[in-house]
Amino acid sequence: MRHSASAFGFAFDATLDVMSSAIVLWRYSNAAAVHSAHREYIACVILGVVFILSSLCIMGKAIHDLATKMPPQVDDFLYSVSIVSGLSCAVLSVAKFILGKKLTSRALITDGFNSLVGAVMGFSILISAEVFKQHPDVWFLDGTIGVLIGLIILAYGVKLLKDMVPLVRQTRNYERFE
């Protein structure tokens, strides 16, 4: 689907998912720091900033598509990619949530949330494309979903920063890393 706010958001979220997974890998990369609260909080702050920036890009594209009344152009290849990616992201999010709970890692749970958003975006592409095929007058559904997903990511990013910045400040003098 070319000119699709959901497809753009999905692609952007895939990039965000790679970045958030890299941040979680950094969080656990030092064996001595596995139980480091400070490192956990820093990872969450970085994730919060990345979520806010990505939400602004996703919402910007979606609002642009809505303002210019850009209808999505359906591409059959995107259907299969959306299904595979949506299912993969759903499975990854469940695994990350389970691991995050067991390790009591907010960073890993946040990464799971990001994968869940990827699954929702993958399936929303399918839904908006099918609705558009049947009812072309509902061209705005794709952009509207993009705005809603952008707002959800923005809210989660702001909440992460609100919760974690004070904790980073509290723990910065307690732990020193090489």
UniProtKB/TrEMBL annotation:
One of its GO terms (cellular component) is synaptic vesicle membrane. GO terms for molecular function: zinc ion binding. It is found in: Cytoplasmic vesicle, Secretory vesicle, Synaptic vesicle membrane; Early endosome membrane. Belongs to the TMEM163 family. It comes from the Eukaryota. Keywords: Cytoplasmic vesicle, Endosome, Membrane, Synapse, Transmembrane, Transmembrane helix, Zinc. The keyword Transmembrane helix applies. This is Transmembrane protein 163. It is a multi-pass membrane protein. InterPro entries: Cation_efflux_TMD_sf, Tmem163. The chain crosses the membrane at residues 6-29, 41-62, 77-99, 111-132, 138-158. It comes from Crenichthys baileyi. The keyword Zinc applies. Its main location: membrane.
